[in-house]
Amino acid sequence: MVKQERAVRTRNALIEAAADGFSHEGYGPASLLAISRRAGVTSGALHFHFPTKSALASAVMGAAAQNLRGIVERCEKQTPPGGSLQILIDAGHELSRQLEQDVVLRAGFDLEGDPGCPRGIGEVRHLWYQWVRGTLESADLAGELRQGVSADHVASAVFVYTVGFQTLGRRDRTWVSHRVLTRFWSLMLPGIAAGGRSLAAAGS
Amino acid sequence: MVKQERAVRTRNALIEAAADGFSHEGYGPASLLAISRRAGVTSGALHFHFPTKSALASAVMGAAAQNLRGIVERCEKQTPPGGSLQILIDAGHELSRQLEQDVVLRAGFDLEGDPGCPRGIGEVRHLWYQWVRGTLESADLAGELRQGVSADHVASAVFVYTVGFQTLGRRDRTWVSHRVLTRFWSLMLPGIAAGGRSLAAAGS
Fold first, then answer.
1. pTM score of the predicted model
2. Is A145 in a helix, a strand, or coil?
3. CB-defined contacts A:B, below 8 A
4. Of A22, A73, A140, B88, which is most buried with the most CB atoms under 10 A?
5. What residues in B contact A119, CB-CB < 8 Å?
């Protein structure tokens, strides 16, 4: 293995170990020594890649944002054009699945709500909010929203709901589930979707 | 001041100072010394009232649960009978107002989502969920819910939403607001409330 490849592997192992530590223990209590051990590297190697704890948190956040972008891009490609509301529903379900499986993505969301974590290290939660808002604006322009319903209001409801189930999922994983999100959309869609559309609250 | 009164005052000052510390710094990083200083008592006095950090967290949680009970009882008294959905909306608005003002209530919700905080110290979030569910069951029995809408599903949506805005409010207070909750109910009510009812999404 060439040197560069090994460096990338070490960096990724550190990001994953840090994500695990930050997510389980919180940013403040998580120990850098334990993180380097979990990644199978020396404490010196950790400091070579990430001179500070906040640099490590920032890298976790960057990787989480990258994974989130991958999720929404996949959903945008899969759903036929003209179905922005369905893309939004599908992306929410995919996000909840990935929050279950992907510790880096989960840590990104957790860190942003962690009172001990310094600000300014990036915002994966905010990125999600922006994408939700943009997608609902497209839905509005395409006449997918019921008259009088504000894309902005729906965006903030979807965002608050996402943060809610992600937060509850830290203690009890059953909250981050297909079922919980399907319920939300089943209740919400009659009030927000323009009539005559057939949307799958459970995802398409 | 008799001795007992002074003891109650000290205990309350410690609970308030601890709530502030746990809420701002997180359970793990919050220092008992800083808490005793903030309460204006010695470290010995703190340990006399609360032998462990988790005993202190448990007292904060107990006080938060007491404050939450006060909120729902006031709302139940104020709203005329037969209006369970309106009681639920009103209690949500009152909870959001109190989360803004009452550091003990806020800390109760925060502690339950704090990965560093030991479990089994009480559950104010869960208490809210139970009350929401009970109130929606009453609404269902009284025919206030649209046919086919499950009280249980609405309860989980309301609960997830509450946890969401409370979590977001830790970083940005504007999320815990009358406006954000009014938007939620405006979007949700058309899908869940039986026709012909006049409900105030902004609270009565």
1. 0.91
2. strand
3. 117
4. A22
5. 171
